[in-house]
Amino acid sequence: MTRARAVASLLALHAAGAAAGCAQVPADRAPAVRALAAAVRLVPGWAVDTAARVGDYTGGNAANPVPAVLAPWRAYLADRPDSLHASPHWSAAEQRAMPAGAEYDLTRGYVFQDADWSAGTSISVLDVVPDADSSAWTVRTLFARVDSATRDVRPLAIVRTRVVREGGRWVLASPMPAALRGWRRESVGRLRYVLAPGHAFDRARAARAAALVDSLARAFAVAPPDSITYLVASSPDEAQRALGLEWALPTPGRAYAPNRFLYSANPALGEFYAHELAHVVLAPAVRETTPGMAVEGIATWVGGSMGRDFRALMREWGAFLRARPAVTPTGIARGAYDFDGGWRATGAILFAMVHERGGMPAVRALLDDLARPRPASDNYVRQNEVVLDASARALGMTRDRLDAAVRDRALRYADGR
Ligand SMILES: [Zn+2]
């Protein structure tokens, strides 16, 4: 594989992970979607006893608790789990304890990615298992795409959900508190580290991360969170299991900005996952209307991406562009290529160029400009165009000059300048 090809595939790989890994909270969906969500079908697997009564032959003839335990899960899935909203089916105590806008279901972005998530998705309950004292239950559910023609099954995730008693009824709850029992705690500055069993804490890296939080907050003139909970795991599988995903597409790092929570599952970064930290700290400077290219661009500029810092990333991306004279930021923004093309690298370099021209005041002004309310759009091409237009204005150039200017800057990065 040539270097340029390697970069292209890495960019594509990261974008695939990041589409989920760095997603913003989607805007509330139109009421029309409700009807669609109501069609959700929960299929009990072989291990799930759905009979109304159990124990007939012993004379016990007791009511089977499984249907009642499954009821809140079924209701939750039918109530637009793709959109963040208060849920009567989820523990009220857990929802109350969260900061405003926080995710109570940490698996949401992995499984319920858009309003029509359930279309073509088969939902199979694998098992429903009580705790030793039957006070709470664990439900494991397989979400899979099934091709109606070939019957090919492509698993999306296996989700582990807790069902607990609250106010005299069954409700859902996060499996994370139980999963993190036995994980070690360490505090450094504003960071509250939670370390997977066996992880050797790197205090020097943690100190760098804590310093980054403060310096980012100063540079962007935002109030830093009082505390940030930072999970460190040795693999995406280990981190995602703690969140309640028995299995899912591996994502090496993920920030839940409103929760002031992130996980790092890339041992090369460990306690210093600058990109995801940036998402958490810079959250006050972005809005739901801020285009994804800018959200990822700013985090990539200050925190790097794919395990590389910004400079290393730019050297690769500059070399990639040099090998492909026809590739332009406009083409990338419009999705004109059969590879990802680096829209996050494009977003990052735009902020770097604006910084070179006008310093942090210009960067903050660009972020403000991009956060301005505008009609919500699911059209990512239009959103990308918003970023290019605003960046050209911030750079004091016309849009048709922007492509050449970005390419020129990227090639100088490739030369180490
Ligand atoms: Zn990101």
Indicate the low-confidence ranges by residue numbers: 1-37
What overall geometry do the principal axes of the alpha carbons give?
globular
Small molecules held by this entry: zinc ion
Mean pLDDT: 88
Structural class, please?
Answer: alpha+beta
Q: Largest beta sheet, briefly?
A: 6 strands, mixed
Report the count of strand segments.
Answer: 13
The proportion of residues in beta strands is 15-25%
Query: Number of folding domains?
Result: 3
Q: Rg from C-alpha positions?
A: 23 Å
Helix run count = 15
Topology pattern, helix = H, strand = E: HHEEEHHHEEEEHEEHEHEEEHHHHHHH
Helix content: 40-55%
Explain this structure.
The protein has 417 residues and is α+β, with helices and mostly antiparallel strands. It is globular. The protein has three domains: 1-24 and 286-417, no CATH class; 33-174, no CATH class; 176-284, Glutaredoxin, CATH 3.40.30.160. Strand 12 and strand 13 form a beta hairpin. The relative contact order is 0.11. Helix 7 (203-219) runs parallel beside helix 9 (274-281). The chain has 15 helices and 13 strands. The strands form three sheets. Strands 1, 4, 5, 6, 7 and 11 form a six-stranded mixed β-sheet that branches. Residues 1-37 have low confidence and may be disordered. The structure holds zinc ion (ZN).
